Amino acid sequence: MKRDVKRENQLNISRRDFLKTSALIGTAGAITLSGCQPKNSMTSAQGTDVGTGNYPSDKKWDFENPPQSIPANKIIETLQADVVVLGAGLAGVCAAMAAAEKGAKVIVLEKREVSTFHGGWCGVVGSRRQKELGIDIDADEVIADMMRWGAYMPDQRLLKLWADESGRVMDRLLDMADAEGIETIPEPDLKQSWLYKEYDISLRFLPAWNATLVPLIEKNAKAAGAEFLYETPAVQLLREEENGRVVGVIAENLDGYLRIDAKAVIICTGGYENNPEMLAKYAPRALHAASSWYSEGSTTGDGIKMGMWVGGAMQAGGYCPMLFDGGIPGFPLPIGLARQPWLNVNTLGKRYVNEDAPFGYTCNQDINQPGHMKWSVWDAKWEDEVELMHGTVCERLVPPLWSADVLDQSLKAGFIVQADTLEELATIMEVPLDTFLQTVQRYNELAKSGKDLDFGKNSEMLTTIEQAPFFATKSGAALVVTLDGLQIDTNMQVLGTEGKQIPGLYAAGNASGNFFANDYPITAIGVSHGRALTFGWLAGENAVQNLA
Ligand SMILES: Cc1cc2nc3c(=O)[nH]c(=O)nc-3n(C[C@H](O)[C@H](O)[C@H](O)COP(=O)(O)OP(=O)(O)OC[C@H]3O[C@@H](n4cnc5c(N)ncnc54)[C@H](O)[C@@H]3O)c2cc1C
């Protein structure tokens, strides 16, 4: 029977609970899962966590308690590897490829039956493709902006490392792409407004973006000798008691537990966007999102937890959910038309912010509104006006994110509502009629005067709401991924609470921390993929270099 990861998560059956109810006791040989107590929160004088500020510092969350070790007699098979990679997302396939091409015996454990890929913008600096196109990026400026975006909480050494190494790693991916005639394109249309700018750092692989890229790397990693075990989630790390070295991992497949002895373990299991308890601790703001876009459901913070159970430290604060606007309950994807910076009103019918902000900022404002939702409102002139809107990156109405029939389908499904009068629209929206009409009247006055005296939106985006039919969509924030994880150094080695390396343990991608804080810096387009591919690759290289 196929494993239904998503269903398991919906039922909230955690691996820890499973282990508990299985009443497993004992250890796997002389090597144990550490029962250390992670101290992973910065605590203020008031005793509240600095990161989220809303729970007592001594609260112990269930996920922080290490499970009992799995007894040796439950292990059905033992495998040997130089390097074990946990997770076959972008970071994991890069780690596997880099380690395998250096001659290491690599095993990749993946929870799902296939590898995982999303989106396509990959942010890198100085690749040969960018040089060919004459794209010259001022890395210091990008880093400075990312530091500001993260309120100076990211580790600048990691940002510098990404800027220095991402071009080299991208060149290796381009080698693989060139060998198969796969083309790459930069972002054709960058936003340069007074509020923020988009840096020209992203490349996309054609035709299917990361659905092209990740299988391409996976295929090359297999050709280089890496072995992929699907539907085989890692469940516990193995650590030598005397020196604290991580020496392998226990995984589980449909037949039982496997033990893989290894000289290095690289955690690439992604974030905790599908783990409500971890969200409640680290990113409670994200629990107000109206929808979640990591639909596979397999990223439940497993690697972060496993790392913490052997003494790894979680990022100390500035926890960083990637939140987008346009989250529609019951609808798994964004509706591009509804994400344009049209007039936004809250459920009280009032305008509350400059709608033309990067979407991470917009959705923070949306979360702050009553019910954490807003209405976007536009009118019959939208086809002429939409060119002026110039939304951020994936807000733009370009295929495959947008096609003409999306409006019809969304209207039929009720995700966009339509009316011939503003009064009728207000009734459908269930907002107070008088307030809504006053808001529209004021907005139209501002639009006609060409100056947004209330919130300072760029004048070309001030478009009137006066021609029937009128349209509206109700949306909130969408949780995409989480971007904070285990603390790492510039070798990609996981650090303990005292800032010391845990020998044999590496992390990359969304399972690793200290690169992002507070908000995803969409100003550096695709830098989430840029981090995953660069640091995954470096983790693979470093793990091989340090093999005992
Ligand atoms: C819809 C969508 C669109 C996006 N678009 C973009 C974009 O265009 N540009 C950008 O920069 N970012 C984008 N992102 C974010 C980006 O995809 C991620 O931040 C990035 O891919 C993270 O890579 P990763 O390898 O660390 O994690 P993931 O890609 O999440 O991979 C983690 C892997 O680990 C596996 N796993 C989990 N637990 C275990 C376990 N116990 N054992 C074994 N395997 C396990 C998972 O099944 C998964 O395969 C997007 C995200 C989404 C959801």
In short:
The chain has 548 residues and is of the alpha/beta class.
Write structural notes for this entry.
The strands form 3 sheets. Strands 1, 2, 6, 7, 8, 9, 16 and 17 form an 8-stranded mixed beta sheet that branches. With 548 residues, this protein is an alpha/beta fold. 30% of the residues lie in helices and 18% in strands. It has 2 domains: 1-318 and 483-548, FAD/NAD(P)-binding domain (3-Layer(bba) Sandwich); 323-479, Succinate dehydrogenase/fumarate reductase flavoprotein, catalytic domain (Flavocytochrome C3, Chain A, domain 1). The two termini are 39 Å apart. Helix 3 (90-101) links the parallel strand 1 (75-86) and strand 2. The longest helix is centred in the first third of the chain and has 24 residues, at 156-179. It is built from 15 helices and 17 strands. It is globular, with a radius of gyration of 24 Å. Residues 86-92, 109-112, 116, 118-121, 233-234, 268-270, 293-294, 298-299, 302, 480-481, 509-510, 526, 528-529, 532 line the site of flavin-adenine dinucleotide (FAD).
| CATH architecture tag of the largest domain | 3-Layer(bba) Sandwich
Work out the radius of gyration.
Answer: 24 Å
Q: What structural class should be given to the helix and strand makeup?
A: alpha/beta
Oligomer state equals single chain
* Total number of beta strands: 17
Shape descriptor: globular
CATH class of the largest domain: Alpha Beta
Tally of helical segments: 15
Catalogue the ligands: flavin-adenine dinucleotide
Count of all domains:
2
What is the name of the CATH topology of the largest domain?
FAD/NAD(P)-binding domain
- Outline the low-pLDDT stretches: 5-30, 33-56
Q: Roughly what percent helix? A: 25-40%
Distance between the termini: 39 Å
